[in-house]
Amino acid sequence: MVNTEAVKTYLLDLQARIIAALEQLDGKAFLTDSWQRAEGGGGITRLVEEGNVFERGGVNFSHVKGSTLPPSAAANRPDVAGQPWEAMGVSLVLHPRNPYVPTVHMNVRFFSTCDTQGNPVWWFGGGMDLTPYYGFEEDAVHFHRTCRDALTPFGEDLYPRFKKWCDNYFYLKHRQEARGIGGVFFDDFNEGSFEHSFAMMRSVGDSFIPAYVPIAERRQAIAYGERERDFQAYRRGRYVEFNLVFDRGTHFGLQSGGRTESILMSMPPVVKWRYQWHPEDGTPEARLWTDFLPHREWV
Questions:
Q1: How far is CA 81 from CA 118, 137, 264, in A?
Q2: Which of 63, 135, 182, 270 is deepest in the core (most CB within 10 A)?
């Protein structure tokens, strides 16, 4: 039996736990912005700007409803296109100030709708991925191992399946380049019972703090200068390109008449683009392309 209230209770608690961990790491409080949506539902946006660790970061909870499911949400499910819908989730993007601390994205979400015959349809989605500017193998292994360990109790096949899905999804096709080093990604997940699928989603959400916070703690005090900040701004451009051109969550939010400020909280505060620029061979910047962005097995 589908229990939407249990999902909502979990998501609100997850948002609160993540904010508590991030405020302890950063030392600056996140602002709170509660909002309502005219068509139904609302959310709570928690945001920090000009923090000690995070130049910009947001952790958003939303619970929204609509009368017609947007095309982006029904891309893989034509049987539910145009139907009434309900969606809830927690999504976050953190853009650190120090270029040696990676940007990170995580979201977990739940959709409920019905097919054209009126039969209930539901699924979970989500995942997390890491976008370093300067790569550390230790960090990549830790992040992927934590993702793997969160999924293993629900099936040995889930981590390799969701890792490949993440590699393929967070990929800039127009550049033939990965956005970062990946992680795990899943969508339209309703395997087994509701309780089984919900437990799997909870395990992914709960693993975010141990996956990311130790990496940020290790790298936040590394000295950096204008060169590293300049490269960080250049690479952030890839993040913007992906989110605006390919990301289904961004498209869903905009197509469903969502709250623009909350949808675009994932945008980094400082970004640069250059024409036909490439790092010099042998530099730490070039190593990102040669050693980290190509898809590989980390654990």
A1: 12, 43, 25
A2: 182
Token pair of 86 as six digits: 């309900």
Q: Is 105 a catalytic residue?
A: yes
Q: Tell me: the pLDDT tens digits for 126-179?
A: 999 999 999 999 999 999 999 999 999 999 999 999 999 999 999 999 999 999
Asked if residues 93 and 80 have their Cβ atoms less than 8 Å apart, the reply is no
CA atoms within 13 A on the CB side of 277: 11
Angle at 110 between CA 191 and CA 244, to 5 degrees: 115
Annotated binding residues for substrate = 91, 107-109, 257-259
Q: Is 292 exposed, middle or buried (0-12, 13-18, 19+ CB in 10 A)?
A: buried
Numbered residues of the known binding site: 91, 95, 105, 107-109, 144, 174, 257-259
Q: How many CB atoms lie within 10 A of CB 160?
A: 13
